[in-house]
Specification:
Elements lengths: L9 H18 L3 H29 L4 H27 L5 H9 L5 H25 L15 H20 L6 H15 L8 H7 L13 H22 L1 H8 L21
Helix pairs in contact: 1-3, 2-3, 2-5, 2-8, 3-7, 4-5, 5-8, 6-7, 6-9
């Protein structure tokens, strides 16, 4: 009599089941609701990044290390909260690099990815302007903060590479908020660029001449480096996490980029 196969560990199967279930729920939401989630989440993220930079600079007495620490703490906290909150609604991309990678994986249609990107940029820019209003600063401004050169571009590539590796490689959906937040918090300090790792945030930060700003002329270099880092992360993740690749490949989005509600992924039919 053949022995029954040993059960696969819960870490592998349950984690993948949970993540796939959350992804299906998010991408099955009406497009308008998903875009609203991405827009609101992006607005709150940018408002936190810019606002905490202003507050940190005002309270630090010229100590840039203290200002950066305050900026980091606020960003880490809001990232964890927003990902946990909007994950079931839209997938909580809040980042065009993530949306592009999801499209490259066939998880999101290119038309939906384009709409995600547009709403993320609009949301982030509105968040920067909101921070200006809260701190009684001129609403419309351009940054003069110089951030350019090979070292800065390399730092942005690495920051985005690590972020996407976390996004693609985490095993359980409940791990995403703290893992993404932890990576960004660390990258704030070990990268020369202080880890923008997000094209939408980069554009928004070019519109604020505050602690977190970047010159508009320097933004394209950052964005290019971020997209290169995201692309490399996708290639590496496909090799490192083959089981996740197989699971995600079973999610076949329809022409609108939404998963049909009556279609279960193979991983959930076991």
């Amino acid at each position: 009599m053949l022995a029954r196969p040993a059960p696969i560990t819960a870490t592998c199967v349950c984690g993948l089941r949970d993540e796939v279930a959350v992804r299906v729920t998010a991408y099955a939401q009406p497009l308008a609701r998903r875009l609203a989630g991405e827009g609101l989440g992006s607005l709150l993220l940018a408002a936190t990044v810019v606002g905490s930079g202003v507050m940190g600079e005002r309270l630090s007495g010229g100590n840039l290390a203290v200002a950066l620490l305050a900026n980091t703490a606020a960003t880490v906290a809001v990232l964890a909260a927003l990902i946990a909150l909007f994950g079931p609604v839209s997938g909580a991309h809040l980042n065009p690099a993530v949306s592009v990678v999801e499209a490259l994986r066939g998880r999101l249609s290119w038309s939906n990815a384009g709409m995600y990107t547009i709403i993320q940029v609009i949301g982030c820019c509105c968040g920067a302007l909101l921070a200006h209003v809260m701190f009684e600063l001129p609403i419309w401004q351009l940054s003069v903060h110089v951030r350019t050169g090979p070292a800065q571009w390399l730092a942005e590539g690495i920051a985005t590479f690590g972020l996407l590796l976390v996004v693609l490689g985490h095993r359980r959906s409940e791990d995403a908020p703290w893992m993404v937040a932890a990576w960004i918090g660390a990258a704030y300090w070990f990268t020369a660029s202080t880890s923008f790792a997000n094209p939408a945030i980069t554009i928004a930060r070019s519109l604020t001449d505050t602690f977190s700003g970047i010159r508009p002329a320097d933004a394209p270099g950052f964005i290019a480096a971020q997209l290169v880092g995201a692309g490399i992360a996708l290639v590496v993740a496909r090799w490192l996490f083959p089981s996740k690749k197989a699971t995600h490949a079973s999610l076949n989005a329809d022409a609108t980029g939404e998963v049909p509600p009556n279609k279960k992924p193979e991983a959930l039919n076991a």
